[in-house]
Structure formats: structure tokens, C-alpha cells
Design brief:
The structure holds 2 protein chains of 2 kinds. Chain A is of the alpha+beta class. Chain A is about 30% helix and about 20% strand. Chain A folds into 2 domains: about 300 residues, 3-Layer(aba) Sandwich (D-Maltodextrin-Binding Protein, domain 2); about 160 residues, Dipeptide-binding Protein, Domain 3 (Dipeptide-binding Protein, domain 3, Roll). In chain B, about 40% of the residues are buried. The termini of chain B are close together. Classes of the chains: A alpha+beta, B mainly alpha.
Chain lengths: ~550, ~325
């Protein structure tokens, strides 16, 4: 016990030292306010104080824009993205680009750290999660205020919680919070049960803080002219059009944001995006597809830690994939190296069905699927379709990576006598078929939005195991067990159990793991992205 | 029937056409796969929640009821609200119209600047090398897809000359002017060959007519003959061609705006369709239909003014 405490003390000191050594813009404040590693309960079950989590995300590549930002910058940060903004309703947003935009305006109490494992201060300077007392106590930054000048208070957080809870998508994510109280800078969340998922959820853009009663506006008026306490405020916006964010003069962190303005444009043409980037007319192109990134100067491609998971779901609700042997035959027939060879070196073979490089990720008990044609034929022979079968695969035709993968799968499966018909559909139609489990096979990709393996687990449940129609009760049981687990080891064992289910049943399998990519101008400093590609505009400065 | 009667009749004809176009678009959107409710509610919404959204948006009503409701609102000047942004559709479309108008005006002007002199020259130098070169260049212009022409212009011109921005619409009027030149040129390269060929053919036909021979025999020649007798008589079909071209340019804008990252109506309708934002897509469609019909109507009116035979034929 004593040895563990000493080790823990040294670890905290070492992490503290490394945070100080990192000496970024926030200087002393950043270092002392510290970050909390995703919730950990000590052996004694006591309080987990905020500690700095600096675990390096494996696979991170040296990337442009990551040096510390200067104290002064100014100017306009120009960002283009392929996808359209979803509007300001945080709950119903589906595009990563929307999450980036939301958190710049409606900042959550805490932020996820760029390494994918811990947290950074948001509106709260410090926080203490006490699983014994069932409380999380946040201390807001001095001067934390909305862009209209009103100070952030516990009532605003309580109001925001009501709005979050009413959301049809993420509404259940804050179930453990039963009350919010507080005075002045202190905000106390009372929990109904210990919840390992709550801090990660609170760090996501879905937990942006809004002013009480929408600052006197109706809901529709508010979502037309949103107000938040984040580093930026909305100057103009439209869906599919330009979004202009101006520096929030009331922002609580001195010197932040570094740029005066952020202009976000939707540029759907990939060639045009590249031309804009090369001509210096945009600083960042968000979420470059892997099959396009090779056309950019590699020194200007920011490669996030490997996290994006390409997956294949096989429909277990009807023949032929209700046959587990056929599913395994497919899993062993896929040439995972070939799938990834076409993706510019930014992908690798899968290690499971859970997105890696996230807190409490764990591998399956056995090595995951690799190409083995003998084994594939053996499985096919044991199936009800020894002579092969014709099946259809559903994919998003607008996603160049998935279109490429579908073609590779077609060639691979033909080798064992499985005739694959490719059905590439426009995104809306694709999603419709996917969510109604209407196709034999479906490929897509996903990543998390908050730092914890529970996040991918929820997504697996929400998609009925990535559109295979597999039962989700087991998954939900595992999720709730995760939420209340006492140690990291227990949580990782749950992750392994999920991975094992994928390996043993082969209803939903990973077929490739890759990095989210951004084109980032060398003129930027302070650009740091989480493995899932989300980043904060206010840490960025323009140096050139 | 006088000219006024002709114009009134054409105006009346546009009303059922407008309803017909809206109906067709409405039906097409209804049968297009993809659930608007999922786009509104989000990917993680349950079936019960999706059903609630469908009910709220009136998507469970019969197509006839939905169409009737839409038409009634449109007649009251209400294009509805976007499913995604909750903003009035008119408010979403309005700023984009400005950008596309710049593009269309620029495209038409450049088309005319290129095609009138070349069409006249080709007709006057019929079957000579100049004529062959002009027709050959026209073929090249016709055979190049607009997005490809756009990319070539971006690479060869925009990246070499700072004056031409490689994309976007800029912030000031001066920026708008600079931003619109290359997209307009792209449109003009694709559409000028039609006008050149049409004008050339019409001028040759006019030049071979009896009244031109008569004019020549009376000593009218050179520029005066071309301006007063040939061009004026060849202009009628040319105007119809230009009107047709404006319709083409409007739909060409969908591609050009994507290539040059211009946030106009072309880009807007693509994004709205992707998001299954039905009210917005319908708003754009109505706008496209109105513009095309207005242009054709205008062409008919100008024709009626220029050519007295129009009223008799009408």
C-alpha cells in the first residue's frame, strides 16, 4: 500500500514536472490547474484529485502546428471542411466538424486532452471527482462569463443539464447526475452512483454550457443566435455556408483566443480544398480523407494518433449471415493489408472492433482476424453455403475510402466463392439502409468523441453493433458494468470482453485502423488534435 | 392578338408550369431514399424519437396533404423553415442568390463578349481558315467538362497570379469582382460555343436571303450591312439561344460553385439535398424554376419587340 502511494506520488510529481516543462501559453495557470486522467479510483477507494495526464498517445506522428502558441497573434484563422455544419443543437449534430465548432462557442466545464486519455480545464479551472461521496466539484475560472457578459453560475449548468437530458441522441449520458448545486465559482454535481463515464461525457462538445433559460430567448431563437462562454462568439453562420466566429471579449483565460476571428467554409471539392491550402487561402483543411492526403505535402499533414476504425457489419437477422461460419469465412478472407495499402500508409490492420488510443482501450484475448484463405475455405465448407453465395454490401458512395475498401472486399471474397454486389449510396440513403439493417453487409467508419472506451461501446450499441442487427443487451450490461467498475483493470477487462465478442461471433469486425488527418499550415502554432480529430481553435496562433 | 395579349398569355402559362415543377420535385423528393427525420433527430435517435420528429414535421401526412400545405404556404410567401437550421428558407437562400447572380451576370457577359465577335467573324469568313479555327476552338470548349476547365484555370491562372483568388467569394466588392472572373470564364468557355454556332448559322442564313442581296445591290455593304440588316435579323434566334444558355448556366453553376468554392445557390441545393432538408431543397427548386421561366418569358417579350412576326405566330 505504502509503496503504491510512493509510486503514485512520484508519478504525480513527474507528470507535474512534464507539464511545467511543456510550458505553453497558459503558463503557470495551466500547470497548476492540471488535468485529470479519466476517472480512476485509488485502491482505498478515496478521492481522485486532479492530476495531469500526459500519457503519450501511441502512434502520434510529428505534425505541423504543434509548437506552443505565442502570447499574441491576432488575425483570422481560416478553416475549410468537406462536411456541412449541423446547426447549433449539440445533441443532434453528427459531423465532427460540428463538434469542433460547438466547443469553440459553448465551452464545456472541462476539455478532453489532445492525447485522448485525460482532461484539460474548460470553464472549470479545477475539478475533483469523489466516487465515495458521489460528487464532482468544479471550481470555475475567475471571471468565467458568457459572451453577453453574464457570469457562468450553477443555475446555468443545471439548465444545460436539463437540455442535454432532453436530447434524443445523448440524453441518457448524464443519467448519473441527480443534482447540481453551488455558489460563486463552485459547482457541485451530485451523482446517484459512481460513474466512470461522466467526466469524459462532460468533456465532450455535447456538454457545452448554455445560459439559463436560453438567456431569455426561445429555443429556436437561441439556436439561431447561440450564446456560450467559450473563446469565440458567433458573428454569422448558416448550414452549408460560411461561419464566422469572433473573439469573445469576455473570455476568462487571459490572452486567449490568440486569433481575432475564425472563418469556417464548406468546400466540398477536394481539389479546390488543396488549391486553397497551397495558395495560403486556408490554414486548415479538416478531416482529409486518407486517399486524398497523399496529394499534400507530408510535412503539412497532421496525423492524429491511430483511432479511426473501418468496420464491416454482417446482417445476422437473416440468411446468409445468420450463419456464423459464413461470417468467419468472410473475416478470414479479407486481405487487410490490401485494404490498407490503398490508403496512403495512414491505415493499418485492425486490432479489434473498438477504436484504439483511447482511455482503457484493451485488445482482444486472442490475435484479431488476419487473412488466412485456408481457414476461410474451411469455415465456408462448414457453413450452409459451401459452394459460395451472393451477397450485397452497402456503403457511402461519397466516402472515397469506403468505396475503395468495398472493391477490395469484392475481389477478396470472390476468391472463396462469395459474390459481392457493391451498392454505393448517397449518404442519406446509405444511413437509412444501415440503421434499418437492410443490407447483407455494411461498411463505414467511426471514432469516439470523448476520452474513454465506453464511448465506442455506446456507439456499437447505438448502431446495433455497426448495423449487423446483433443484440445489444449484453453490450449495455457491459457498459453499465464499466460505468461502475472500481479499477482500470476491470474497465479494460470489459473492453476485452467486447473485443472477444466481435472476434468470436464475427458479426461486426474491424477491417482497418487509421489516423484522422488534417492539413495544417506551417504558419500555425498550437494546433493539437485528439486522436478522433477534434481540436480547439483558441490554442492556435498564426505566426506567418 | 397584340403584343400585350401575347405577353399576358405567356405569363398565364407559367403559373400551371410552376405548380407542375413544384409537384414533380415534391414527388421526386418523397420517393428518394433517406429519412429526413434521422437527419433532424441525429444518428443515435431511437425509432420512437424518429417517429416523434416525423409527426412534428408533418412527414406522416399523405403526400397530397404535404403538397397542398406547401403550396398554400408558398402562395402566402412562406417557403417554410429549414429542418436542420430552423431558419426560414428564404433567409437561407437570399444571401446565396447574390453570389449566384454575380456568377450568372459575369458568365452571360463573358459569353456575349466572346461569342458575338467570334460568331460574326466566323459567318463573315465562312469556310475560310478563320471560320475553321473558331469552330474548332468551339468544339474544344464544348468537349471540356466545366469542372475540368475550372481546375485548369485554377492551376494555370489563380495559382500564378495573385489577382485571381483560388476560391471563395471574398469580403469586399473588389474581392467579389476578382473572385467571379475565373468562374464566369469557365461558364463562358462552356456556353459560348453554342452561341457562336447559332449566331454563325443564323447570320449565314440571313446573308443568303433575298433582302440582303437587294440591300447589296442598292450599295449597302461592309459594317453597315452587317449591323443594320444581318445582325438585327439574326438577333432574334440569338436571343432565344442566350435565354436557353442562361438556364444552362444556372444549372452549370451547381458544378462551377463547387469547383470554385462559391457559396451560391448551386452549392446550397447540393448540401440541402444531402442533408434531406426538404423545405430548403424545395425553396431552391422553386427559385430555379422561377428564374428559368422568367428568362424565357423575357426572351419571348424581347423577341416580340424585335420581330413583328411574333404576334402573328402567337
Amino acid at each position: 500500500m505504502r509503496i503504491k502511494k510512493i509510486i503514485a506520488l512520484f508519478a504525480v510529481l513527474a507528470l507535474f514536472a512534464s507539464a511545467c516543462g511543456d510550458d505553453d501559453d497558459a503558463g503557470t495557470t495551466e500547470a497548476t490547474t492540471a488535468t485529470t486522467a479519466a476517472p480512476v479510483t485509488t485502491e482505498a477507494g478515496g478521492t481522485t484529485e486532479a492530476t495531469t495526464a500526459t500519457t503519450a498517445a501511441p502512434g502520434t506522428t510529428a505534425a505541423p502546428g504543434t509548437t506552443a502558441a505565442p502570447a499574441e497573434s491576432g488575425g483570422t484563422l481560416r478553416v475549410t471542411r468537406f462536411e456541412s455544419f449541423d446547426g447549433w443543437v449539440m445533441d443532434s449534430a453528427a459531423a465532427y466538424v460540428s463538434y469542433n465548432t460547438h466547443q469553440a462557442v459553448m465551452e464545456p466545464l472541462i476539455r478532453f486532452a489532445a492525447d485522448g486519455y485525460g482532461f484539460d480545464p474548460g470553464l472549470a479551472e479545477t475539478w475533483v471527482y469523489d466516487p465515495d461521496a458521489l460528487t464532482i466539484t468544479f471550481t470555475l475560472f475567475e471571471g468565467a462569463a458568457f459572451s453577453n457578459g453574464d457570469p457562468v453560475a450553477a443555475e446555468d449548468v443545471a439548465f444545460s443539464l436539463d437540455v442535454w437530458n432532453a436530447g434524443p441522441n445523448f440524453g441518457g449520458s448524464w443519467d448519473s447526475i441527480v443534482a447540481i448545486t453551488g455558489e460563486g465559482r463552485e459547482i457541485v454535481m451530485e451523482l446517484a452512483y459512481p460513474d466512470n463515464t461522466i467526466l469524459p461525457v462532460l468533456s465532450g462538445s455535447i456538454s457545452g454550457i448554455m445560459p439559463k433559460d436560453f438567456a431569455g430567448m426561445t429555443e429556436d431563437e437561441f439556436y439561431n443566435s447561440p450564446i456560450g462562454a467559450g473563446p469565440f462568439m458567433v458573428d454569422e453562420w448558416s448550414i452549408g455556408g460560411r461561419i464566422v466566429l469572433k473573439k469573445n471579449p469576455n473570455y476568462h483565460r487571459e490572452g486567449r483566443p490568440y486569433v481575432d476571428e475564425v472563418i469556417l467554409d464548406v468546400v466540398t471539392d477536394q481539389t479546390e480544398n488543396q488549391i486553397l491550402f497551397e495558395s495560403g487561402d486556408t490554414h486548415v483543411v479538416e478531416y482529409l480523407p486518407a486517399n486524398v492526403a497523399g496529394q499534400y505535402d507530408p510535412t503539412e499533414v497532421y496525423v492524429c494518433a491511430i483511432h479511426s476504425l473501418e468496420h464491416l457489419g454482417m446482417n445476422v437477422l437473416r440468411p446468409p449471415f445468420d450463419d456464423p461460419f459464413l461470417r468467419k469465412a468472410v473475416a478470414y478472407a479479407v486481405d487487410y493489408e490490401a485494404v490498407n495499402a490503398g490508403l496512403g500508409g495512414y491505415y493499418g490492420p485492425p486490432s479489434g472492433v473498438l477504436s484504439p488510443n483511447i482511455y482503457n482501450w484493451a485488445p482482444p484475448s486472442e490475435p484479431y482476424f488476419r487473412r488466412d484463405l485456408d481457414k476461410a475455405r474451411e469455415m465456408l465448407a462448414q457453413s450452409a453455403y459451401p459452394d459460395g453465395v451472393q451477397v450485397e454490401i452497402n456503403y457511402d458512395s461519397g466516402n472515397g475510402v469506403d468505396a475503395l475498401i468495398a472493391q477490395v472486399l469484392q475481389a477478396n471474397l470472390a476468391e472463396i466463392g462469395v459474390d459481392l454486389t457493391l451498392t454505393g449510396l448517397e449518404t442519406g440513403a446509405f444511413l437509412d439502409r444501415a440503421f434499418t439493417v437492410d443490407a447483407d453487409m455494411t461498411i463505414w467508419n467511426y471514432g469516439a468523441i470523448s476520452p474513454g472506451i465506453h464511448d465506442p461501446i455506446i456507439w456499437l450499441a447505438a448502431t446495433e453493433w455497426l448495423f449487423s442487427g446483433w443484440e445489444t443487451d449484453t453490450l449495455w450490461d457491459l457498459f453499465f458494468a464499466y460505468a461502475e467498475a472500481a479499477t482500470d483493470a476491470e474497465m479494460q477487462a470489459i473492453a476485452t470482453e467486447v473485443q472477444d465478442l466481435s472476434f468470436n461471433e464475427a458479426h461486426a469486425i474491424g477491417i482497418g485502423e487509421g489516423s484522422y488527418l488534417h492539413a495544417v499550415s506551417q504558419t500555425l502554432t498550437g494546433f493539437e488534435s485528439a486522436p478522433w480529430g477534434l481540436y480547439y481553435y483558441d490554442t492556435i496562433a498564426i505566426s506567418g | 392578338m397584340g403584343r400585350f395579349g401575347f405577353v399576358a398569355k405567356r405569363l398565364l402559362q407559367t403559373i400551371p408550369m410552376l405548380f407542375g415543377i413544384v409537384l414533380v420535385v415534391f414527388m421526386v423528393l418523397q420517393v428518394t431514399p433517406g429519412d429526413p427525420a434521422r437527419q433532424v433527430a441525429g444518428l443515435r435517435a431511437s425509432e420512437a424519437e424518429l417517429e416523434e420528429v416525423r409527426e412534428k414535421l408533418g412527414l406522416n401526412d399523405s403526400v397530397v396533404v404535404q403538397y397542398g400545405r406547401y403550396v398554400k404556404n408558398v402562395l402566402q410567401g412562406d417557403l417554410g423553415y429549414s429542418y436542420k437550421s430552423r431558419k426560414p428558407v428564404a433567409e437561407i437562400i437570399a444571401p446565396r442568390i447574390v453570389i449566384t447572380s454575380w456568377l450568372l451576370v459575369g458568365g452571360v457577359l463573358l459569353t456575349l463578349v466572346i461569342s458575338i465577335p467570334l460568331g460574326v467573324l466566323a459567318a463573315l469568313r465562312k469556310d475560310r481558315p478563320t471560320d475553321h479555327i473558331i469552330r474548332g476552338l468551339g468544339l474544344v470548349g464544348l468537349s471540356m467538362p466545366s469542372f475540368w476547365t475550372g481546375v485548369i484555370l485554377l492551376l494555370l491562372v489563380a495559382l500564378r497570379f495573385d489577382f485571381f483568388p483560388p476560391g471563395g467569394f471574398g469580403e469586399s466588392t473588389y474581392d467579389h469582382f476578382r473572385s467571379i472572373i475565373l468562374p464566369s470564364l469557365t461558364l463562358a468557355i462552356a456556353s459560348a460555343p453554342f452561341i457562336i454556332r447559332g449566331l454563325r448559322a443564323e447570320m449565314i442564313s440571313v446573308m443568303e436571303s433575298d433582302y440582303i442581296s437587294t440591300a447589296r445591290s442598292l450599295g449597302v455593304s461592309g459594317g453597315r450591312l452587317v449591323r443594320r440588316f444581318v445582325l438585327r435579323n439574326a438577333a432574334g434566334p440569338g436571343i432565344t439561344l442566350v435565354a436557353l444558355e442562361i438556364g444552362y448556366l444556372l444549372f452549370g453553376a451547381v458544378v462551377i460553385e463547387t469547383t470554385f468554392a462559391l457559396p451560391g445557390v448551386g452549392q446550397g441545393i447540393v448540401l440541402a439535398a444531402r442533408a434531406r432538408d426538404l423545405p430548403t431543397v424545395q425553396g431552391y427548386t422553386l427559385l430555379f424554376a422561377l428564374v428559368v421561366m422568367a428568362v424565357y418569358l423575357l426572351a419571348d417579350i424581347i423577341m416580340a419587340i424585335l420581330d413583328p412576326r411574333v404576334e402573328i405566330e402567337a
